[in-house]
Design a protein that fits this description.
The chain is mainly alpha-helical. It has two domains: about 400 residues, Up-down Bundle (Growth Hormone, Chain: A); about 55 residues. Helices cover about 80% and strands about 0% of the residues. The chain contains 17 helices and no strands. The relative contact order is 0.14.
Length: about 475
């Protein structure tokens, strides 16, 4: 049982993460309402309401994590919440689509500041023996927000209008900022003398933004469109440039030696792969229920609710088992459970509405897979990195998930096609099979995680100066 003050730390860092994760998907179900409010705007214009936030968020996560490690996690956490609240208010008041897109960009900046600093504050407040449990709870909160996005979005749009989706964020974010200042202790890297590689920040942000832009707009612009090709080409040039610069700069934005730690690299790759299946499935599930079974939007949102409920119930249990057994087989089990749910849909969900015997068991399996995979992979990714790199390490994990998200949504859109094809059972069956294969792939990647976290490295993590430069990774990379 957690002491009241540490329980407060978990709640204060967890609530904003829930909001940020919720915000990643909540607007997807409000999209038709936007078209009604702005009838003169094209679908391509409205798509930037979704894409602008996701691109900025993904591009700024690692720089934001580095800033939190250097200048203070509580400081960056509070600034991020205020920025997120300001962006949300601007979105709710937006008179035109360009103003709405601008507000979403501000939201994306705030989201990027909140996520890595939140995880770093949580890790700093708990001992190494408790971190697997609390990080899996934190990860479960994040996953719950993402999974509940369509349900809560539909509920708010149905009860009021899309603007209230943004207005409800404002007081919650501001109250969280005040509580953080009152209850969270400050933590930051001890050595602030050298300024991190500012050019590296620009290079990485541009590389991630171009990659996300190409993936997000590929289905609409066409994969052979010059703009898409140019986006991928720029990203292909900038990523190696960032690697070279990081290897040579005395204070790189991201210490690439972190990737020599096996658990860190494998966990982030598994998270990326799992995210492709998860985020694509969230979109496809709503489309299937509304287009094939002809559910209303609110009924469809209720129909997928068992999935986030199971995710919320499973995450904390998975954390307790992780402390005993390590991460490897739990992460494998999570990927396989999610694959089983998608395969169940491929084999047993048909064109006629049959919720209890066909859809519900699959939804439960998907929820179990989410509740195990995301929290366990989040915990694994930061289990073997030094304490003064908690925020940037968590940011790498969130970036991997965000890249997986944009790939998953783009892949789902490509598989389903458009027009009549999008309503055909054949297209949905194809996605369910692909989703199962991708989730099974994440289980295969997860099988390469280290079996347990060695005590020597675990104890190093609680010393702020330990492994500061990761010069000696001989023990760590075997994790």
């Amino acid at each position: 049982m957690l002491a009241p003050r540490r329980l407060a730390v978990l709640l204060i860092t967890g609530l904003p993460v829930f909001l940020v994760s919720l915000n990643l998907l909540v607007m997807a179900v409000a999209f038709p309402a936007l078209a009604v409010s702005f009838p003169d705007s094209s679908r391509a214009d409205l798509s930037w309401v979704l894409n602008s936030h996701n691109i900025v968020f993904g591009a700024l996560l690692i720089p934001a994590g580095r800033a939190a490690d250097r200048w203070g996690r509580r400081r960056v956490f509070g600034i991020g919440l205020v920025v997120f609240a300001a962006g949300s208010l601007a979105c709710g008041l937006a008179p035109t689509v360009p103003y709405l897109v601008a507000g979403r960009v501000v939201q994306g900046v705030g989201s990027a500041l909140v996520m890595p600093s939140s995880l770093a504050l949580l890790l700093a407040a708990f001992s190494s023996r408790e971190r697997a449990t609390v990080v899996t709870i934190w990860g479960a909160i994040s996953s719950l927000g993402a999974a509940l996005g369509p349900t809560l979005g539909a509920s708010i749009v149905q009860a009021a209008q899309w603007r209230w989706v943004f207005f409800v964020y404002v007081p919650i974010a501001l109250v969280s900022a005040l509580l953080g200042r009152a209850f969270l202790g400050e933590s930051a890297e001890a050595d602030r003398r050298r300024i991190p590689d500012l050019a590296g920040v620009v290079i990485l942000c541009l590389a991630l933004a171009c990659l996300a832009l190409g993936i997000v707009e590929g289905p609409d612009w066409g994969w052979l469109d010059r703009r898409v090709i140019l986006s991928f080409a720029v990203a292909a040039v900038l990523f190696p440039a960032f690697v070279v610069r990081s290897l040579r700069h005395p204070e790189p934005l991201l210490n690439l030696s972190l990737f020599r730690i096996r658990t860190f690299s494998v966990a982030n790759l598994a998270a990326l792969v799992f995210s492709v299946s998860f985020y694509g499935q969230v979109l496809v599930g709503i489309l299937f229920l509304t287009a094939v079974w002809h559910y209303g939007l609110f009924a469809a949102a209720l129909a997928i609710t068992p999935t986030p409920v199971m995710a919320a119930l499973t995450g904390p249990i998975a954390g307790r088992f992780a402390n005993r057994w390590g991460f490897r087989w739990l992460a494998v089990a999570g990927g396989l459970a999610y694959a089983a749910g998608a395969l169940w849909m491929r084999l047993l969900v048909g064109p006629e509405a049959d919720y209890l015997p066909a859809w519900l068991p699959a939804a439960i399996l998907l929820g179990i897979g989410i509740g195990i995979s995301f929290p366990i992979l989040s915990a694994a990714s930061v289990s073997a990195i030094p304490a003064n790199r908690f925020a940037v390490g968590g940011a790498v994990n969130q970036t991997a998930r965000q890249v997986g998200a944009v790939v998953g949504v783009a892949l789902a859109v490509a598989v389903l096609g458009s027009g009549a094809a999008r309503n055909s059972m054949t297209s949905f069956d194809a996605w369910f099979a692909i989703s199962a294969l991708i989730a099974a792939g994440s289980a295969i990647v997860s099988s390469q995680l280290g079996p347990r976290q060695p005590r020597a490295v675990a104890e190093m993590l609680v010393r702020p100066g330990a492994l500061a430069g990761i010069e000696d990774v001989g023990a760590a990379k075997r994790i």
